[in-house]
Amino acid sequence: MKGCLLFALGIPAGLLILAVVVFRLNFYDVHVRYRLTVEVQDGDQLKTGSSVVEALYDIQPTWSWSGPGNYTRVVGYAPTVDLGDKGLLFLSFSNATPTPEERARWSVYFCGADSMYCLPFEAYGQRDVRTHYYDREASLKTLLRQSGPRDVPFVALPKLARFRNGDDPRLLVHVSPDNLAATFGPGVELKRVVLQLTDDPVSPMPETWPQWLKQAGQEEGTLKGYRED
Length: 229
Known about the structure:
Distance between the termini: 45 Å
Number of helices: 6
Radius of gyration: 22 Å
Strand content: 25-35%
Number of strands: 9
Number of domains: 1
Order of helices and strands: HEEEEEHHHEEEHEH
Mean pLDDT: 76
C-alpha cells in the first residue's frame, strides 16, 4: 500500500519536474551586451559619451500560446555627451520622430529602424534577418559571433534628445542627428555613433547627469532602460 502511494505521488511530481525542464529549455532570454559611443564635434574639440547596455531578446517556441517570442527589453542608461554650457545630448531609448526624408530611407532597414534592440543587427550588417519571427534565435547566434566596432547609420538611431531651455527645463525635446547645430549652435556636429559587442558590465548612471535627474531618474524607456526581472 505504501509503495503504491509513493508511486502515485511520484507521478505528478515527475510530471511537474518535466514541465519545468521543458519550460526552461523553450522559454528564455538571449542577452546581447554592447557599448554605444556617441562622438560629437564641438568646434575644434571631439566630445564623446559612452554606455554599455544590454538587450534581452525573448525566445519562445512556435507551439506556445503566444507564438514565437518577439518581446525585447533593454537595460542600462542612455549614452550622454556633455557639451558644457550648451547642455547634454542623450541617445535615448525612445523611438525617433523621423522627417519625411528619413522615413523614406527606412525601407533599407529590416526592423523598427530606430529601436535600441535593432542597433546591433544594423551595425553588423544583418538587415535581412527577421529577428521578430521564427529564426530569431539563429539570428542572435550569428550576431553574437561578430566582433569589432561598427558605425551605426544615423537613420537607424533612436531619438537623440536634450532638455529644453526655458519654462520647463526637464522636458526632453528631439534633436536631429543631421543638424545638431540647429539646437546646440554653430560648429556642433554628430560625427559617429559606434557600437561594439562587449562582455563589460552594464554602465552605471552617467556622472554628468544633473543631481535632480539622478534622484528622480527618468521614466523607463526614455533615458533608463527597463528593469531586468
